[in-house]
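User: Can you help me understand a structure? I only have the sequence.
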Amino acid sequence: MHAEAYRAAKLREQVATWRDAHDIAAYLTALMDAHEDNAGTGEWVRWISDYATLHDPLQSAPQMPDVPEPTPDELRPFLRGVSPYGPSRLQRAIAVAGEPDSKPNGVLLVSRRCD
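Assistant: Let's start by predicting it. Here is the structure, written out as tokens:
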């Protein structure tokens, strides 16, 4: 699940960057249409054009992103309350005592079998 979430985040970043580049290109077109006769605008137009090209993620073919090794905090949302740093005291106690019985209200009852 971490890999899917990581890739989805990268996709959203690429879309946002693409939208920015698209908006900048649209602005550049409007700027050139409105001020094509203004000689002082040329340097700014060139800079904007270079910037839009440099930041457009579609200038090169995108590849599947490499998923880095997750940190414990990045894993936390996928562990359903279990600590990414290891079991808690309660979890260790449950493991020692055996499988917990559960009540409908979500309270865990840990019982030892005494034979």
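Now, to help you interpret it: The chain is about 50% helix and 5% strand. The chain has a mean pLDDT of 80. Let me know which part you'd like to focus on.
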